[in-house]
Amino acid sequence: MTNKRLRKPKVSIIILNWNGWRDTIECLESVYQLDYPNYDVVVVDNASTDDSIQKIKKYAKGGLPVKSKFFNYNPTIKPISVFEIDENGFNYFNLKEYERINPNKRMIVIKNHQNYGYAGGNNIGIEFALHYLNPEYIYILNNDVVVEKNNLKELVKVFSIDTKIGFVSPIQLYYDKPEIVNNTGAEIIFSKAKSTHLNNGINISKVHISTKEIPSLSGAAMLVKKEVFKKVGVLNDFFFLYWEETEFIFRAKKFGYKAYMCGRTKIWHKVSVSTKKINLTVLYFDNRNRIIVSKQYAKNKELFLLCLYLIYEIIKFALSSIVKYHSIKRFFVYIHGIFSGLIF
């Protein structure tokens, strides 16, 4: 096992949890069944209030069997040794003891003191991994996904195509519609400050998805080369929710890095489970951040067209908020997001 691990680049998998332990343990079970021999699992808990850390530790002991339509639960890999660390206590991490344990029998849990959002929470895991675990790649993985068994093996292979590949993402399918594509990457339309999912809604059997360069990708499953973080920096935690991976990718493109879709492996995504209950918060951050990213990376012509488009969109959103949703608050949250982005 040790020789096999040495032949494969090390990958640190960062899984962010916030009040979502049920999704997280299903994600973890799929991760621990990967056929890749050299990885770390780092769960970052964003100050959950639903006893998430205790539930995850109970799963690791074998006390919470996971039911899923995508795999059979494997009790033989339990117990999993949990190394629990406070966000301010990284120096207490026992690396020597950790490295004596096989990858599919160990887990690191970082306990944050507050909810730092998607970017801030992931950054804590990324910075820990870079400093203590020394991976070649970091896999940012949403807690509400299930990965295919060959996931890491196939994603890592893609980097051999071109030394300037900085990001690789798998095919993403809907969890509740396992044959329907959620996305095979993304295209950013700066003239409307919108992100469009490629091949969204198409049955996977009716489309050929090849491994190729794509304009952008979803942060739900994003394998990133270590040197990208060293040269470009980490995610911008000002964004808190939404568009942070888009900003990160376009920032990296200025350094010559490319994003690729891997057509040989899949994940199944529950799609924004963690934000369903806070949709007004989502509405604000989504609109604020899409404007900020567009201002930073759009061309002058695209910015001019965006100004025209926003006039139309604001009127349309006001009418839908009043007529369809009967909610003035919804419109004010939206307009607050738009103007916060414009004056940023």
Automatic annotation (TrEMBL):
Pfam families: Glycos_transf_2. It comes from the Archaea. InterPro entries: Glyco_trans_2-like, Nucleotide-diphossugar_trans. SUPFAM superfamilies: Nucleotide-diphospho-sugar transferases (SSF53448). The keyword Glycosyltransferase applies. Keywords: Glycosyltransferase, Transferase. Signal peptide: none annotated. Residues 12-69, 96-232 form the Glycosyltransferase 2-like domain. GO terms for molecular function: glycosyltransferase activity. Belongs to the glycosyltransferase 2 family. PANTHER family: GALACTOFURANOSYLTRANSFERASE GLFT2, RHAMNOSYLTRANSFERASE WBBL. This is Glycosyl transferase family 2. It comes from Aciduliprofundum boonei (strain DSM 19572 / T469). The lineage of its organism: Archaea, Methanobacteriati, Thermoplasmatota, DHVE2 group, Candidatus Aciduliprofundum.
